[in-house]
Amino acid sequence: MPQRKYTIDWCLVRIGDDMNWWVTEVADPVHWDVDALGVVDPKQLSYILEQCDALQEYGFDPDIVDEAFISLRIEKEEKKEQVRLTRTSESLLEDDNRHFGLPDIIDEEKGPYADFLDQITRFRVKLINDLIDFDQNLTVDELEEDIRERQNQEYMEGKAVHPFHEVTSILEYVPEGYELEGDEPRPRQEGDDLDDIPEFEEENEKIEEDETMRWDEDDEEEGEDEEAEESSERTD
């Protein structure tokens, strides 16, 4: 008998302190655990699709995105700053900046979301090996181990790994000590460093002096007066 695939028709989500959307309630709580269950918002989804475009020449099939994520749209705003999302049959690949994506993680090891992560990992490795001249090619195991170490550190700090960060950690992965040209900056999240904030140009206008800014001249004049007085006393 084929295994039944449990899906949901709606869920309630809220935006967390990390500026990501997290599920607070689902239509099927028996098979869906809302603990640390996140959804990818339209802006994040758009970025993921853009990053996946670069993997298509290495064999990536974009149709797997519709299998890996359940397509949701906003139905209405609920109380306590929550939003109700309902399932839609529309493709996430339309990328009209209205879709939310809920990872299909009913089967975390062999489900469609797990297959999606496996594909982008393999093709990201191919892309990196194609663009960087290593003495020895990067392997899938090395990438997965590196990312696993980073995630374990977050777990130890009590942080849940949001699906957007889980996916982009692969799509943006570059071995330490290397960099790739052309990688697009992702949407800013809480905790990101702010080195890219534009600096304000200093104005070259000369500041008009007033009485409070003439301390140097006053000191010089006072010193000259003291020297003249001492010289006069010696003469007398």
Shape verdict: globular
Strand order in the sheet with the most strands: 3-2-1-5-4-6
Helical content class: 25-40%
Q: Which ranges are low-confidence, i.e. pLDDT below 50, for 5 or more consecutive residues?
A: 184-217
Count the helices. How many? 6
Structural class by SSE content: alpha+beta
Say how many strands there are. 6
Rg from alpha-carbon coordinates: 30 Å
H and E order: EEEHHEEEHHHH
Would you tell me the overall average pLDDT? Answer: 80
Percentage beta strand: 5-15%
For the biggest sheet, the summary is: 6 strands, antiparallel
Structural account:
By secondary structure, this protein is α+β, with helices and mostly antiparallel strands. It has a domain of 162 residues. 36% of the residues lie in helices and 14% in strands. The chain has six helices and six strands. A six-stranded antiparallel β-sheet has the order 3-2-1-5-4-6. Helix 1 packs parallel to helix 5. It is globular. The protein starts with 9 loop residues before the first strand and ends with a helix. About 14% of the residues have low confidence.
In short:
The protein is 36% helix and 14% strand.
